[in-house]
Amino acid sequence: MTGSSVPPFAVISGAQVQQALAGRERQITELVEETYRLHGAGDSVNPPSYFLRFPDRPSDRIIALPASIGGKVRVDGLKWISSFPDNVAAGIPRASAVLILNDHATGYPFACLESSIISATRTAALAASAADWLSQNRPRPARAGFVGVGLIARYIHTFLTGTGWTFDEIGVHDLSAEHAAGFRGYLEKAGPGRITVYEDAEQLIRSSDLVVFATIAGEPHVSDVSWFEHNPVVLHVSLRDLAPEVLLASTNLVDDVEHCMKANTSPHLAEQLTGSRDFLAGTLADVMAGRVTVPAGRPVVFSPFGLGVLDLAVGKYVYDEVTRSGDLHVIDDFFHELKRYGTLTA
Ligand SMILES: NC(=O)c1ccc[n+]([C@@H]2O[C@H](COP(=O)([O-])OP(=O)(O)OC[C@H]3O[C@@H](n4cnc5c(N)ncnc54)[C@H](O)[C@@H]3O)[C@@H](O)[C@H]2O)c1
C-alpha cells in the first residue's frame, strides 16, 4: 500500500485466515525464515512485548507485540494476544488475538485480522525451521515427543509434517489424559507413525530425538539433566519448562537474545543463576548464517520468545491473499473525520 490517501479499512475473519494459510506450510515456513533473517540483519523494529497482567487473575495476561518490518513486506503493526488458560476447561481456546496492520506511508491502520491462527502458524513455522537447522550435524530425528499437547503442539506437528518431516514414533505427554487422548486422535488421522502416550515426561524425553515443549507451565518442571543424555533437539516453545541446570548442560539458541532474557523464561532464570549469558550459543539467525555450529554431542535447546515481525509478515501475506481472491471485507467510512476544519457549509 503506497501513497498518501487514507487506505480502506478491512476486517479479516479466522475462516478467511485459515483458508489463506491452509496447506501452505512450506511457503509460510520460507516466508517466516526470510522475515526472521531480515530481523537478524536489523531491517526491523521489534521492541519488547508489553505484558498486561491482572492482580486478581494472576494466570491470565494480554500481550502487545508492536513491530515494523522492512524488506519487500514493508508494514507496521501490532499483535494483541490474550492468554486465559482457564478457557480450555470451558471448551474454548486459551489464546485469542487480533493483528492490526498499519500502512507504511500514512500510519493508518488498514486491516484487523483474527490472529490466533496467524500466531500459531508463525510459531509452528519457526519451530519447523529450527528443527531442520538444529539437526543438521546429527542423525535426522525420527522419534518426536510432544510435552503439552494443545493447539500449538498440533500446529507444530502440522508444520513439521507439512515441511517434509516423517516420524517412526511419536510420543505424547500431557498432565491431562483427556488432552493427550485428543492429540492422539488428531495424530491418528494426520498420518503414519507409532503413537505412544506417556504417563510421565521422563520416559517421553528419553524416547524422543526431537522434543517439543508446548505446555502452559509457569515455572520449570523438568530439571534432571540425565533425561537428555541422548542429546535430543529440544524445541522449548513454552519457554518455562526447563530448569536452568538443563540449559547449562545444553547448547542454547534463542530467536532474539534481549527478548528472551525477560519474564522468567528458562533462559532468563539461567542468566539470573549464573550472572551471565555465557550459556547462550547465539540465535537461530546465527546458525542460519553459519556463525554458530551446533555440536552433535550435547542436547540443543531452542527457546523462541516469539517475534511480532513474524506475525506481521504472515498477516500481510494473508491480507494480500484475501485481497487477491476478491473477498476483502472493507468497512466503509471507518475513518470518517477526515476534513481538517470539518464540513460545515455557510
Ligand atoms: N514462543 C512462542 O512464540 C509461542 C507462541 C505461541 C504460544 N506459545 C506458548 O505455547 C504454549 C502452548 O500454547 P497452547 O495454545 O497450545 O496452550 P493450551 O492451553 O491449548 O495447551 C497447553 C497444554 O499443556 C498441558 N500442560 C500444562 N502444563 C503441563 C505440564 N507441566 N506437563 C505437561 N503438559 C502440561 C495442558 O494440559 C494443555 O493440554 C503456551 O505456553 C504459549 O504461551 C509460545
Total number of beta strands:
16
Taken in chain order, the helices and strands follow as EHHEEEEEEHEHEHEHEEHEHHEHEHE
What compounds sit in this structure?
nicotinamide-adenine-dinucleotide
Report, as a whole number of angstroms, the end-to-end distance. Answer: 37 Å
| Largest sheet report | 8 strands, mixed
What is the percentage of strand-forming residues? 15-25%
Return the structural class.
Answer: alpha/beta
Shape: globular
Percentage of helical residues?
A: 25-40%
Poorly predicted runs are none
Rg value: 21 Å
| Average residue-wise pLDDT | 96
| Count of separate DSSP helical elements | 11
Q: Any overview of this molecule?
A:
- Helices cover 34% and strands 23% of the residues.
- The chain is built from 11 helices and 16 strands.
- Strands 1, 2, 3, 4, 5, 6, 7 and 16 form an 8-stranded mixed beta sheet that branches. Strands 10-9-8-11-12-15-13-14 form an 8-stranded parallel beta sheet.
- Strand 8, helix 4 (151-162) and strand 9 (169-173) form a beta-alpha-beta unit.
- Helix 1 (14-21) packs parallel to helix 3 (116-134), helix 3 (116-134) crosses helix 4 (151-162) and helix 3 (116-134) crosses helix 11 (308-325).
- Bound molecules: nicotinamide-adenine-dinucleotide.
